[in-house]
Amino acid sequence: MSSQGAARRSYSDVLGLAAWASVAVALYLVFFVAREADISMGGQLQRIFYFHVPAAWISYLSFAIVFLASIAYLRTASRRWDLLAHSAAEIGVVFCTLVLITGPIWARPVWGTWWQWDARLTSTLVLWLTYVGYLFIRNLTTDGARAGRLAAVIGITGFVDVPIVHFSVQWWRTLHPSGPTVSNPAADSGLGGAELAAFFASLAAFTLLFAWLLSLRTRLGRLADRVDSLAVATESRNPAEPQRVPAGNPVGEAT
Q1: Which end of the chain has fewer CB atoms within 10 angstroms, the N or the C?
Q2: How many other CB atoms are found less than 10 A from the CB of residue 3?
């Protein structure tokens, strides 16, 4: 292993330890420090908020990286940007799926229904479908460069939906609560100091976890590229030879 590869692996290991340590701290704060919400917000079930909102944040972050990396790939045709966009899209879809699962779990007892076709929920579903399509389009052709260009166009245009999802609770009437923001964490959230501490600890834990997963996924992508290049090089050095039939033995006749 090269010194550069060893350094990357060491960085990834340290990042992984930090991520899981922060997850442990966040879980402690969520379940043992944060107070139970009132029954109108779901009581104990409201604790799902500490996972639902950070998962939505990681979706935004992932798709923002896809957006920026896709622009860079179209400008430079560099494989590293394509790999970064692909890796971030996969992680983003995972966390966006988590958003769409945890939201209805909370909504069922609070709203009395699993799903409402309001602006926030519908635009989030559209976002998820867009990036699932992004991943699907990459498998439609064996031409990696062409697939990368097509996916990059989807990754760029699909990001338009991210601000629509985020600001939908302000632009349209919706059942979805607005929740805390970084600029004004106490606004419309009903959270006290302990709850805000748990929330931001969970947000930090999810962010570190995302960074670790992204480092792992890009490293796996580089290894896969190296394996493919070695396979091509091996085939070019050792082309398959036609099978030789022994003299006097007709093809297909048993010896």
Answers
A1: C
A2: 7
* Alpha-carbon torsion, ordered 34, 40, 45, 48, to 10 deg: -70
How sure is the predictor about 244, in pLDDT bands with cuts at 50, 70 and 90?
low
SS3 assignment for the chain: CCHHHHHHHHHHHHHHHHHHHHHHHHHHHHHHHCCCCCHHHCHHHHHHHHHHHHHHHHHHHHHHHHHHHHHHHHHHCCHHHHHHHHHHHHHHHHHHHHHHHHHHHHHHHHHCCCCCCCHHHHHHHHHHHHHHHHHHHCCCCCCHHHHHHHHHHHHHHHCCHHHHHHHHHHHCCCCCCCCCCCCCCCCCCCCCHHHHHHHHHHHHHHHHHHHHHHHHHHHHHHHHHHHHHHHHHHHHHCCCCCCCCCCCCCCCCCC
> Which has more pLDDT, 121 or 233?
121
| 61-78 pLDDT tens trace | 999 999 999 999 999 999
